[in-house]
Amino acid sequence: MRTRHLMALFTGVLILAIILPISLSIWQAARQAKMQFYRELDDYSNRIVVRTLQVADQAREALREADAHTGSSCSPEHLLMLRRIAYTHRYVQEVLWLLNSVPQCSSLEDHSVAVTFPPPDHIASDGYRTWLTSINDLGLNHQMTAMASQQHMVMIDPISFIDVVPASEEKIHTMLFGLDHLKMVISSQPLPAKVWQRIKDPHLNMLTLDNTVYRIQRIPELGSGIVTWSSTLPLQQHIRQQLIFWLPAGIFTSLLATWLLLRLLRHLRSPRNSMLDALNSQAIQVHYQPIISLQDGKIAGAEALARWQQPDGTYLSPDIFIPLAEQTGLITQLTEDIVRKIFADLGPWLRQRPEVHISINLSVDDLRSPILPTLLHDQLQHWGIAAEQIILEITERGFVDPETTMPVIAHYRQAGHRISIDDFGTGYSSLSYLQKLDVDTLKIDKSFVDTLEYRPLTPHIIEMAKALNLTTVAEGVETESQRDWLRQHGVQYAQGWLYSKALPKESFIQWAEDNLHAH
């Protein structure tokens, strides 16, 4: 993956690492608050259902006990039994004896008000009948829930069905209603009319309306329904409470993820990774600077120079990335990549122009590479190019340890390659054993060419090369006066901006062909 693509991906991941944990913590805080809100509402609604069933079961139990009486109706014994039933059953307020749906006596009065009860609001599957009624022996205008068997009736205060303390700190309201006629039995607070209209839907279990959540449950065996509801406005306070825990956790996670990603970024942006990415993405190109004969101006060859193109189109100086490749252990891989590109660029052309050579720079590490000799041999065979057309340039540092490097150089010479000392003169110690080196060409460094008239060492280098029968090439020739001086002193070849800068393959081939046709 190219570095810019990787960096774009990394930037996106970094942004997510900063935003996502905090966003998730806020989302989780809101989620927990909502879950708690709905859990408390559901819990309260379920407790109301349980209470309603408990009250109904107790009413049935009281009726069964009353129906078990076999003595005379409304006798002192009968009345005492009714009073005992009312006394021992928590939710039963009164027990009555009926004759043809007309109360005759009760646990409160020996003689009840003779009022005929209307048809029941609901008849259960077990035969028990229920009413919502204000009929009582005390003359009170108070709605009661009545449940009756064939002979007895119990009166229950509707508040018993919903007299449950919420576990929540927030206010939760509830209402008990009849399913058959949608009649309210008891409510802790008036239910809005538009909610009444909605709960007619038998499939509706949950409703959110006007910042309020309504929970609807139905008890078909009792013909009853229960609505519990609570405002969602306090949710914001609950969310803030949850944030006290979740937000620090999110911030910590975000900081930890950011720290880890920044460490990864430093690794990805390390010099070695940058160089490795450039090699893998083919960002390093090869340009060719012509080497010209000073006698007739004809091209003799070219030096292959690596160029690392940056994303903005500019080129990074080899003085920067070549030492970088050496320091990061990638110089051999870089050289192998350059060799492949040279043959891919110029293979067919070099086969047609056997008089032209290409100089390739080798580092000290390249001399230790077991792959490079084989690579050169295979490429020469593949393209049908003579080995003498590939000159290997080695800097003076490559000869510091002659016991190691000289056998390698000898192997290259036996294969047919010519050897050149690059940037000669930058290490004065080399002068003392130049005559011991098995080389063909000596390249005079640009620093000597720039100061030809002021550095007496340059003529000495040239004379020594002549004495050793070495070909000389001057680097960095930029003026005609430099050219003329070098030619007068016997230097055979030169390269520099006086002739041409380093060119891409197409431009170089065109330049070389024009030069060859002109000579």
TrEMBL record:
Annotated EAL domain residues: 268-516
Membrane-spanning ranges: 243-265
Catalytic reaction(s) noted: 3',3'-c-di-GMP + H2O = 5'-phosphoguanylyl(3'->5')guanosine + H(+)
UniProt-listed InterPro entries: CSS-motif_dom (IPR024744), Cyclic-di-GMP_PDE-like (IPR050706), EAL_dom (IPR001633), EAL_sf (IPR035919)
One of the record's GO molecular function terms: cyclic-guanylate-specific phosphodiesterase activity
Gene3D superfamilies, per the entry: EAL domain
Membrane-topology annotation of the record: Multi-pass membrane protein
GO cellular component: plasma membrane
Pfam family, one: EAL
Localization per Swiss-Prot or TrEMBL: Cell membrane
Keywords: c-di-GMP, Cell membrane, Hydrolase, Membrane, Transmembrane, Transmembrane helix
EC number(s) reported in the record: 3.1.4.52
Chief place where the protein resides: membrane
Protein name: cyclic-guanylate-specific phosphodiesterase
